[in-house]
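Extended Data, record Lipoprotein
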Amino acid sequence: MRARGLATLAFGLTLAACGVPADDPMATARHVSSNEVYGTNGARMHLFIFDPNVPRSLAERKAIARRVIAEEPGCAWVDAPDAVLVDATARQGERYTDTMLVAPLRCSHT
């Protein structure tokens, strides 16, 4: 039984080392709207700010941001290519590329 537990731990650590998004239900982000319009459907780019002490992959940041938006009345996630998100986020500065995300949302209150 102990060997099985160690094997499971080793497998989990291997996945973590490979950059598989962590399923952290407590992770959250704040977001603010910009004046930059995205597309023709009323969406604006929003800046999501994550814990600056925890660098996250693009997949992790998107998953957290989508979860935050799903719980926020009046806002909806707008699908955009990853290249758009990466480019818009990179414009915030290189040191923020793993702790911020710029993505389009359609919100009725902004």
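Summary. Residues 1-21 have pLDDT under 50 and may be disordered.
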